[in-house]
Fold:
Amino acid sequence: MYRYSEFDTAFVRERAAQFRAQVARRLDGSLTEDEFKPLRLMNGLYLQLHAYMLRVAIPYGTLSGAQMRQLAMIARRWDKGYGHFTTRQNVQFNWPRLEDVPDMLGALADVGMHAIQTSGNTIRNVTADHFAGAAADEIADPRPYAELLRQWSTDHPEFQFLPRKFKIAVTGAEADRAVIRAHDIGLQLVERDGARGFRVLIGGGLGRTPMIGKVVRAFLPEADLLPYVEAIVSVYNLLGRRDNKYKARIKITVHETGIDEMRRRIEARFAEIRPEFTGIDREILAGIAAQFAPPDWVARDPAPFHAARAADPVFRAWADTNVAPHRRDDHAIVSVSLKTPGATPGDATAAQMEILADLAAAHAYDELRISHEQNVVLPHVPRAALPKLHAALKAAGLGAANIGLVSDIIACPGMDYCALATARSIPVAQEIATRFEALRLEHEIGPLKIKISGCINACGHHHVGHIGILGLDRAGVENYQITLGGSGAEDAVIGTRSGPGFAYDEIVPAIERLLLAYLALREGPDETFLMAWRRVGLAPFKAALYGPHDTAERADAA
Amino acid sequence: MPRAFTPKVVTANALREGDAVWLTPEDDWSRDIARAELIEDEAVAQDRLLFAQAQADRVVGVYLAEAAPGPDGPEPVHFREAFRTRGPSNRAHGKQARR
Ligand code: SF4
Structure:
């Protein structure tokens, strides 16, 4: 795992000290709110509906046990005993007092963490496949590149005032677990003729105008990564619209300029700046890569795993849903669900964080990940340790066997916390999860991704949910629009709107009708919801949602 | 025709704690909307808004929110404002915890 260099440590400490002075000047009246706001946002501090919110970056979703323990300490000492993990592999504290935030930043610096560039029109936290470095299907661990990008983008003088925020995601595998096609830049490690490089996509994004990213370079030699990314951001910085906030993201620049012209400009800029990269970036990358060396694997006979799987149906259900193949046969990747039906998606209490840190130390080489799906991942677990690990998770209330199923819902904070929200998302997720638990249909329904956003900004990725739910304010009442057939994976596609929205108390029954219709029409348990959608299209689902006769009438009323 | 003025309260977030507060008739800030000043006249509303905006040492993000008279004092009209008087619906935190 990457450990901060002296430079990193000095930098984040200095920023925390600066912010302490800025808060003091705000409180004594020497700074107005207009002057202070950009400063607090540069340090990840937002003002939400009920309180301030501190957003802390978890670069490429990777945490050590010590870092997780520190998050627990911060939650307990300065917040209300929990944290919320987000779709951008960040953690948010919902209740800090303004004057405590400098101490919180200091406590983060103590464990090599920060909240810099988790807001503002900057390059945000670089996200990555949460299975990176562990997945059986990847070419290489993409995190050294993500860390290189983090260092390059942090406080990059040219890119502190971009037209709009800028998000980069990286993966080392063909199976896209990092939603790279919905990012401003998506990077996929690929190999060509034995050489390593990147497939580079630009212009993906969700929000008001959702777009799937387009390939700007099919193969970029790995050594050219930094100059090429710099060329992309530099072209966007000049070309991106600053006249209209809703047209300022690179997806609109790509859409309006055309991918071919964008490519021409990026390649020209790349040719211009490439010679300036004389190799220091390569030395730095080599240093970083050494720190991402895999742990010293402990070879253990996986017999206890097979025995438990044969003997214990509860363990078997969990192992079959929450455990994924590891690059080593005798190890596995464990996803710990933060979606126990009824729980708030992505929330973990301080006690749960500490238990997870303890379990990582005992069974998983002291490493944890946060997934964009708002779960915690233990990336390297010897199979022999799985039964013990499962027992401990179960005892801590973290044993839900639902990864990738109907109750494993992404939900943004919505109007329970977020100042931008138009409706709530959390209680909708809670009710869908508890409803399907009561129906005992979850495993019958099989793989399904429901994603909920509380406004058009789409932090809950609803456009790329197999079922997406978007909360809106219709004439002063919460209203929920459904999209169907989206995907955030390698077959990424924006979902189709089903029709008129549903009131708060109608949305859960609507989802139930939708899924019962799917069970009735699928060709067998092997045909997932998404496959069935792709085969039959909207009509049967529309009928299930609105009734065969009701559709026209409701559409009129909308 | 200009739209008829609907009653308003002046609201904001407290500078230090960040929670929702409402301007009272006594020029103070209360954490209870029922103690807020219900403003029935547009000119008065603008005046009170300016007054509130000048209190940058105490509050942040001042705005006028629709409200309606209730038995104990002003009540929120829009659901967003109602949530601000209570707190989140997934946890008993925020103002609802103090009751
Ligand atoms: S989608 Fe909207 S409501 Fe949800 S967190 Fe993002 S901005 Fe807030």
